[in-house]
């Protein structure tokens, strides 16, 4: 994840969303965008790290 601009990835997800997204939904999309997959544990960890 070192080469990924995390802020830009999150802003891109929010910009492309058709409607408001929850922190968990954003975390799931983020983990897929950076190649982490969508494992439940990863999504849970990411949702705790993203500002709500």
Short descriptors:
52 residues, mainly alpha, 3 helices
Describe this structure in words.
- The protein is mainly α and 52 residues long.
- Helix content is 62%, strand content 0%.
- It has helices at 6-16, 23-33, 40-49.
- The longest helix is centred in the first third of the chain and has 11 residues, at 6-16.
- The protein starts with 5 loop residues before the first helix and ends with a helix.
- The mean pLDDT is 78.
Short note summarizing the structure:
The chain is mainly alpha-helical. It contains three helices and no strands. The radius of gyration is 10 Å and the shape is globular.
Which blocks of ≥5 consecutive residues have pLDDT under 50?
A: none
- The residue fraction in helices comes out at 55-70%
- What is the number of strand segments? 0
The percentage of residues in β strands lies in under 5%
Estimate the global geometry from the Cα principal axes. Answer: globular
- Radius of gyration, CA atoms, in whole angstroms: 10 Å
Q: What's the total helix number? A: 3
Main pleated sheet: none
End-to-end distance: 21 Å
- On the 0 to 100 scale, the average pLDDT is 78
Secondary structure class reads mainly alpha
Q: How do the SSEs run, as a string of H and E?
A: HHH
Helix-strand layout with pairing:
Blueprint (H helix, E strand, L loop, with lengths): L5 H11 L6 H11 L6 H10 L3
């Amino acid at each position: 994840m070192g080469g990924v601009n995390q802020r830009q990835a999150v802003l891109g997800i929010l910009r492309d969303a058709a409607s408001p997204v929850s922190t968990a939904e954003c975390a799931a999309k983020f983990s897929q965008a950076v190649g982490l997959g969508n494992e439940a544990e990863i999504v849970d960890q990411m949702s705790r790290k993203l500002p709500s």
